[in-house]
Amino acid sequence: MKLAGLLTPQFWVFWIFSSAAVAGAAGVVGNVRNPINSALSLVVSMLALAGLYVLLEAQFVGLIQVMVYAGAIVVLFLFVIMLLNLRGSGASGAELQPLTKLVGTGLVVLGTLFLVRVLATGRAPWPDVDPSYGTTRAIGEALYSDYVLSVQVAGVLLLAGILAAVVLAKKKVD
Amino acid sequence: MATSTVFVALFIFALIMLVFAPVMTWVERKQSALMQDRIGANRAEIFGFKALGLIHPLADVIKMITKEDTMPAGAHRLVHLISPFIAVTPAMISFAVIPYGGTYEMWGAKFSLVVADLDYGVLYLFAIGSIATYGSMLAGWAGNNNWGMLGSIRVSAQMISYEVALGVTVIGLFMIFGTLRLTDMGVLQQDTFRVFGFMKYLGWVSPDARWVDWITLPMWGIVLQPLPFFMFLTALMAENKRAPFDTPEGESEIVAGYFIEYSGMKFGLYMMGEWVEVVVISGLLTAMFLGGWSLPWLAESDLIAFLSPKFGANIANLIAMILAVHVFIGKVVALIFFQMLIRWSMPRFRYDQVMNLGWKILLPLSLANIFLTAVGILVVQKVTGS
Amino acid sequence: MGDISPFQFQVVAALIFMIGVVGVLIRRNMIVMFMCIELMLNAANLSLVAFSREIGDDQGQILAFMVMVVAAVEVAVGLAIIISLVRNRDTVNIEDASQMKW
């Protein structure tokens, strides 16, 4: 890492957001006491990932990540946890003991190896993309012209999902 | 360009924090008093100056800051601490994309009266709005209180239901304007269209009938899409948990619902977030539906072209900028007044009525609106050949 | 973005994916396991978007968008299943839902 590299905003954005993403992911797995803590770590991880998407000039995908994942899916998780009143039930501290140390150590070793490999990588060229890359207009045009079939299939899938969720979660009325 | 962005950001911040948020409490008290034929709060005074009750917001702030900050036993400390900030931040940062005016060139520098002219401006607001759910939802859970939990469940269900309606109702407007950028929408709404122009295309009047050209309407969002304006307003008010949609904080039912365990300034932050969001709603509706910063039938470029020979280009731009800010704030104030009217006129909806409205009424209507708008656009394109 | 190589994004995606896999293996709370599945989907999305930018073609973003749609549906249906399971057995421990094991 040259010293001049420390001053670019992309450098700081990348390292801060990716650390937050990985830390959030670790928080999901590591929070034993309360599933709500895991869900909050998941929110942090997803927001950090949205930041990485915007860094990669995928603005539409980044915003949809915030709207759909962080704003709806995790809300659904929290809603179900609150509805079923799961305050740490089914998650005892004992379950992490034997395997965790081994797995955790393995992860740390692997992570360090990756970090060393990453820091040793030279600069790689990023191709120049025209300003309309990743904008809503470009994605919309591609979705509704080349990939319109997948949009239709996604619509049918969403309908099936709604029906399934309503039928499954309904209380049986005898 | 960088300095003008800082100037605009500071201006907007000062406007919100120092003017809108506390004055809204005064507006609520005085407007409700006027509507209910009473005087309202008028006891606070400084050295005998009552100032129509404007000292009361100051008294409120002092009271809230000096109150004891309670943390209930068994509460989740971190979440209890940060929930008010999660609730208030989305309302504040929503102002980044709301344009107070267009772009003006004065003395060699370009002043654009919006903090962040994002290409996906409205999408940013929807994304921020979906984060706002967490502030309310976590508040009730963090307090280790049954009433709070009930309020949390209610508020999360209500907010994510109306997020759907929020997105779908304005798709018709996006189809017509063809952009998500709020500044572009403000510029596009300055055009006018002839109301009876279709008569010329259908051949009902002769091509050189001049009266058809004189009857024009500005291409405001509310003129092009009247029903979605009210649907969008309803969805936004339900998102804000105000007006008839405040079942989550139902005072008579579940004793202040999700912020039951908050006192002092944390409670004040929730209230402030709600009022700032009222201003955000008004700003967003103005920018998208009510023509933004321009007066009807008066395009800004025409105004600047008219004033430039008399005062010079710089002063003409300055006059246009000041006029734009005044017009925008005037429309925002009118919408705030309208929202307060609704809040103090209608009784609270029952919870199943709220869900019914969101899913069974707003959603089908907005889908039908998308279909009709698409048909309308195709017809207009075919007829005018553009 | 001259200082960050595309490989670094893949490393982040791989790390998050690994943490997700480990989470599914060692956690026994049904809902937390489901959250780890979502982590894996997110890691795949990050990898897709990073490659899409590296090539300069936005097909990766469209695929990432479709993955998000599928993930949303999967969460809805999966949480409905979890709700009915918890209602029937009154526990959220996955070891108690083992009637189909030999």
The helix tally of chain A amounts to 6
Question: Overall pLDDT of chain C, averaged?
Answer: 89
Looking at CATH, the homologous superfamily of the largest domain in chain A is: NADH-ubiquinone/plastoquinone oxidoreductase chain 6, subunit NuoJ
Helicity of chain C, as a percent range? over 70%
Fold and architecture overview:
- The complex is a heterotrimer of chains A (174), B (386) and C (102).
- Chain A folds into 2 domains: 113 residues, Four Helix Bundle (Hemerythrin (Met), subunit A); 45 residues.
- Chain A contains 6 helices and no strands.
- With 386 residues, chain B is mainly alpha-helical.
- Chain B has one domain.
- In chain B, 66% of the residues lie in helices and 4% in strands.
- In chain B, helix 1 runs parallel beside helix 14, helix 4 runs antiparallel to helix 5 and helix 6 runs parallel beside helix 15.
- The model of chain B has no long low-confidence stretch (mean pLDDT 85).
- With 102 residues, chain C is mainly alpha-helical.
- Chain C has a single domain, classed as Helix Hairpins (Orthogonal Bundle).
- In chain C, helix 1 runs antiparallel to helix 2.
- Chain C is elongated.
- The mean pLDDT of chain C is 89.
- Classes of the chains: A mainly alpha (174), B mainly alpha (386), C mainly alpha (102).
- Chains A and C meet through helix 1, helix 2, helix 3, helix 4 and helix 5 of A and helix 1, helix 2 and helix 3 of C.
Strand-helix topology:
The complex is a heterotrimer of chains A (174), B (386) and C (102).
Chain A: H1 9-30, H2 35-55, H3 59-83, H4 97-119, H5 136-145, H6 148-169
Helix pairs in contact in A: 1-2, 2-3, 5-6
Chain B: H1 2-35, H2 55-65, H3 77-93, E1 103-106, E2 109-112, H4 121-142, H5 146-169, H6 171-177, H7 182-188, E3 192-194, H8 197-202, H9 211-214, E4 216-218, H10 221-224, H11 226-239, H12 265-288, H13 300-311, H14 313-345, H15 351-384
Antiparallel strand pairs in B: 1-2, 3-4
Chain C: H1 6-26, H2 30-55, H3 59-89
Helix pairs in contact in C: 1-2, 2-3
